[in-house]
Amino acid sequence: MYRGSRKKSEVRLKFQQAFCYHFVASIVEVMILEDFNSMSDLYERLGGEPALDAAVDIFYRKVLSDDRVNEFFDGVDMEQQAAKQKGFLTMVFGGPHNYTGKDMREGHKHLVSRGLDDTHVDVIIELLGGTLKELSVGDADIAEVAAIAESVRDDVLDR
């Protein structure tokens, strides 16, 4: 009887140890994945709010000085425009969601009626990429930003 109880105790102990090991390993794995996911979030990789604020400010300086697209910003309150853009980009890059503006189609219909077309979207994407390059953002992240911009092209152009 002593031997059987001892074996059961040993088996129970090994089971508890194995369970604890797998439980702890699962927790560690979740923690690692959460850290990886947050680090791989585009918003964070770009530098979060301060970097996005700087990027939008530089981007709009470039836009307003570029004769290929600046006509679309005549009469626009640029402080309000920059604030909306910061909120939108924060959201689409994976940051805290606080964008309350119009969707891309509604927000740009009036510009399409004024002649906004693919060439203008190309310029905007070029200027955004140039801004990010100027801020030492890596090529892979710039490509990801460009892909996000491309993904809304048809909505922006009301197609």
Keywords:
75% helix; 159 residues; Globin-like; 0% strand; elongated
CATH architecture grouping of the largest domain: Orthogonal Bundle
Radius of gyration, in Å, reads 26 Å
Number of helices: 8
| CATH superfamily descriptor of the largest domain | Globins
Give unreliable regions as ranges: 28-40
Shape: elongated
What class would the helix/strand composition place it in?
A: mainly alpha
Mean pLDDT: 81
What is the strand content? under 5%
Number of DSSP-assigned strands: 0
Domain count, please report it. Answer: 2
Helix and strand sequence: HHHHHHHH
Q: What is the helix fraction of residues, given as a range?
A: over 70%
| Cα end-to-end separation | 81 Å
CATH topology of the largest domain: Globin-like
CATH class of the largest domain: Mainly Alpha
User: Main sheet?
Assistant: none
What would you note in describing this structure?
The protein is mainly alpha-helical. The chain is 75% helix and 0% strand. Helix 3 (48-64) crosses helix 6. It has helices at 2-40, 42-46, 48-64, 78-92, 104-112, 118-134, 139-151, 153-156. It is built from 8 helices and no strands. The chain folds into 2 domains: 1-40; 46-156, Orthogonal Bundle (Globin-like).
How would you summarize what this structure contains?
By secondary structure, the chain is mainly alpha-helical.
What is the fold's blueprint, element by element?
Layout: H1 2-40, H2 42-46, H3 48-64, H4 78-92, H5 104-112, H6 118-134, H7 139-151, H8 153-156
Helix pairs in contact: 3-4, 3-6, 6-7
